[in-house]
Amino acid sequence: MNAAARAAPVVVAVDGTQRSTGAIKYAIHEARRRGTDLQVVHVAPRALPVGGSMPSMGIPTDALVEVAGRILDEVVDQTRSLAPDLAVDGVLREGRRVVEIPAAGARGSLVVLGRETRHGTERVLGGSTTAGVAARASVPVAVVDEDWEPTARDRVLVGLEPAAGEVLSYAFPLAAARHALLQVMHVWRVPDAYAAVDEERALAGEWVLDATRLLESTVADWRDSFPDVEVEISVVPGRAAQALVDAAVRADVLLLARHRRDVEHLGRLGPTIRAVLGHRGTPVEVVPMTGVPQHAPLVLERFGEVLKS
Questions:
Q1: For residues 135 and 264, what is the distance between their CA atoms, to the nearest angstrom?
Q2: CA-CA to 27 of 20 to 30 Å: which in 36, 102, 160, 252?
Q3: Are 124 and 225 in contact (CB under 8 A)?
């Protein structure tokens, strides 16, 4: 592939702590698989939070940028030593992470972050970088544990609402590129006030069959366009976040759609995505929806592989 046709890079955001270790490994893994370059981004803060309810520590901006530059150089050197076969560049930005990381990743194909580890008051006051970036980014955002290592489960899991079928334009090419089974899961739950209805197993069974048929219809065109991708349809009862996290134990990656309505309210994510991002485990990729219908035959190449000719 020549430079002009080279795919957009994988972008990994680092903070100079161990939290970024798994993210760097995942980004290297994805850049190699996609045949792209790797871009390492670090954001210099304009103030230094000290935790608790205390105000931020006043330190000259130049000093913060100088330290940030050293952090970035160190991580870039580390990444190049781990992946001498990849072209690795460093990008230093200044400001709020939840704004600057999506901006840096806008020309990439994927943004990778370490999973949030702060809890309690510190997280409430400082906010969640992971959720903030996932809510704003214009490209998929992967959230990865610090101890992540490559797995070979050969399974991609996607949480799907029938109305959010656009996410399949990302899921099917990804499963094809990974030579993996694609599990399409829908989770349903009867509201507590109507839980007695669930006792009617015949009614529940009929509803599950109807939902399964609807999902089958949603994936049908994509299935025809990607005949080598084995598809497994799952319709299960329960709380969506927990059911997805439990099922993801058997997968290499979990895909979740960020609906277009969230784009209109920057900084917001649905409760299911937020809850899933709070669980350690399988990497999660949050995929932004555009609201524009995607047709299977138009997806010819992705992740560096010709998928349909």
A1: 10
A2: 160
A3: no
